[in-house]
Amino acid sequence: MKKVLSLILAITLAVSTLAGCSNNAGTASGTSSAPTSSAVSGQNPKKFKIGFPWATSSTDPTFVSIVTNVKAAVESAGGELVLVESDLTADSLVNNVSDLISRGVDGIIFMPASDSMLPTVDRMCSDAGVYYSTMFRTISDTTIRNQIYSSKYFAGGCNEDDEKCAYNITKTLSSQGVKNLCVINIAKGDTSSDLRDSGVAKAVKETGIKLLNTTYGITVQTDMTKTIESYIAAYPEMDGILIAGTYCPAALPTIEKALSDHNLAGKIKVGRIDFDFTMGQYFANKSFNVAYGGQQQIDPLLSTVILVNSVIGTPIVKDKPFILVTNYLELTSKSEADNFLTYFLGDTPVYTSDEIKKNLIKFYNSNINEDTFKKTVDSFTVADVAARHKDLVKK
Amino acid sequence: MKTTLLKAFKALLLPIIVYCVFLAIAFERFSNLNGIYTIFLQSIIPTITAYAVAFGYMCGIFDFTIGSRIIISGLIGGIMSSWFGLPGLIIGCLASSLILSAVTGLLNWLCRIPSLILTMALTMIYEIVGKNIAGKFSFISIDYKYAVLGASPYIVYVLIFATLIFYFLFSYTKFSYHMRAVGSDEAVAKNTGIKTQFVKFMSFVIGGIFIAIAAILTISQSGSMGAQTGLGSATLIFKPLMGIMIAIVLQPLCDMTFGILISQFTLNTIFIGLIAAGLPDTFQNITLGFFLLVVMIISNNIGGSKSLLTKIHAPFLTRAETAAVGSQTKGD
Predict the structure, then answer these.
(1) Domain residues of chain A, as ranges?
(2) Looking at chain A, which residue has its C-alpha nearest residue B133?
């Protein structure tokens, strides 16, 4: 009996080894035969590990949903996600990258805190032969951009047109009747902060809105209340507040409370970039008027997919990084906000593993290219996710 | 009495001068009474937080945990307000603050390591505790009807109540003198029979009362309390600490209780003044830092400044006047 069992196990082992060989061959050549042939035949890429430095201790639903989406992208191609806790500062991220390389990852996805950290990361990854990809951020510095884009190990990534978004939301506020605007933004020096400032400035110039003041880097609620009350005291003519960005917890409820205490909730138009999970109730009260966001889920997912495609040997574009600009979505009603809460911040990623495999991983579908990615981005809306996942997500 | 009033008036000159500077810069925006009232209201929470910081500070303790204790107390108070309304908010904040303060004080007593290191480590732990209490959304909201204490006029009554308690505890108790003795020289205080570790423990606990009040007002004013991580909660103590430093400078002119209120009012005048003047936020930080430096430099060099003035005016002074100024400088 023992001999029979040994024989069966030996045969199984030999077959699985051969299967492994055929996988490697496919991956190395980087060419899957016919569309979806690999998927049909049940082949998978060679096992790989992707490192992700992130604020993993955060229970903020947006932060959690980012991990959910990155994980889905990695696991859809049979990879393993290695998470490390990070405070997301440039110094910390450089240490995280070094740590992940020593743990033997094949690729690293991260959100750069500054342009200046990228050459260091590139040097470390190139020396170790590890691919990397960035999310949410563009590279503003031309010299650094040229250096990074010419790197063999930079797979590319997603970013948003922050300037255009800030320009659009300011124009929307203007169309809603705002004439005197106060702005709250992320600390100066952050790439997104600077671009959003520039977008606001452009729209202000074009629409004739008076930009009264901009306050940066608010991280605690007491400072948020103080700033809004100071605006109310110093600028009685203020009729609009734009949160161009903030890391303050419960920012929107804090602003709404300060306005409500001065009987100004609903009288002053409020808009914000980056969706907030409390916005539904304020949309219903008509004390909150417009939000731009939704990129926080699709951007990390697609950035990771771009990286995964490079790691498994089927890059979306050859010999250069693939940079994709994702769109900001606009929300102006409670029903849209509720759908966002249900379909974007739940346990299901904005694209399921099957959807990613079918539409975003070239190993499984050789028809995938730059254009199909762009089409995916263009068709991505809150309504689109709600329609695709209505049977998957419990309301 | 007349001297006390004169000194108090001199102390009040600080915010008055700062206010007049901004009045000259942005008269239209800064001349309304509503603005002054807003400055006053905004000074209340930092003042009460500064009262909490003051107990440890006078004892020679640098306490990083105050911000995280305010957050945890506010979160627990917020949760309890959903069950028991306003009494739940008050009891929740008070009980959690006193427990946390006692735990922090006890650890400071037992661990015998520098308070800076201990409280920094505890801050990280408290922040994670706060994060878990805050739950999935990282913040807790309260019903606006239980948030009355954060709005005028109730917030002013709370300030008066807190100020009276602080004034009594800080000026008229044996404990306050022991606290100053420990802060001045711990070894000497110990030799005179003061139980130094117990005094430090009590400074944490009594400071906890003011932390609870600050937590009640913070969650009531914002309508919610959000958790912080990565030492983000420490941001809550920097401005109160600046207020204490200025209040110490003002001590020859007025009591610490009044000095803290004046300094917070001054700092907020600068904050709103710069916003009214249309200056960007980055400029506000520069101005606040510069203001603190100027106050500290002047206060630490009063003797030197007087000597310099004497030298400049020496040719115009009589011998008797020169001697009088010289002896006054020595006295300082």
Answers:
(1) 49-161+295-340+348-388, 163-293
(2) A59
User: Whole-number mean pLDDT of chain A?
Assistant: 87
Both tokens of residue A143? Answer: 């010299």
Which of the residues B143, B221, B264 would you substitute to probe the A interface, choosing the one with the greatest number of A C-beta atoms within 10 Å?
B221
pLDDT tens for B164-195 read 999 999 989 999 999 999 998 899 999 999 99
How far is Cα B150 from Cα B152, in angstroms, rounded to an integer?
7
* Chain center to CA of B67: 12
Q: Is B225 on the interface with A (CB under 8 A)?
A: yes
Q: Please tell me which of the candidates B136, B230, B232 has its beta carbon nearest to residue A61.
A: B136
Which one of A183, A193, A221, A263 makes the best mutation probe of the B interface by having the most chain B beta carbons within 10 Å?
Answer: A221
Q: What is the pTM of this model?
A: 0.78
Amino acid letter, residue B72: I
Q: Which residues face A273 on adjacent strands?
A: A292
Helix axes B33-58, B196-222, angle to 10 degrees: 150
User: Which residues on A lie below 8 Å from B221 (Cβ)?
Assistant: 222, 225, 257, 261
Which residues of chain A make contact with B150, given a CB cutoff of 8 A? Answer: 261
CB atoms B229 and A55 under 8 Å: yes
Q: Which residues of B265-274 are buried (b: 16+ CB within 10 A; e: fewer)?
A: bbbbbbbbbb
CATH of domain A49-161+295-340+348-388: 3.40.50.2300
Residue B39, both tokens: 């400055």
Q: Are strands A180-185 and A240-243 parallel, antiparallel or unpaired?
A: parallel
> CA-to-CA distance for A104 and B289, rounded, in angstroms?
46
Same fold, A49-161+295-340+348-388 and A163-293: yes
Sign of the Cα torsion A336, A338, A339, A344 reads positive
Give the count of alpha carbons within 13 A of B32, CB side only.
13
The answer to ipTM > 0.90 is: no
A163-293: CATH architecture: 3-Layer(aba) Sandwich (3.40)
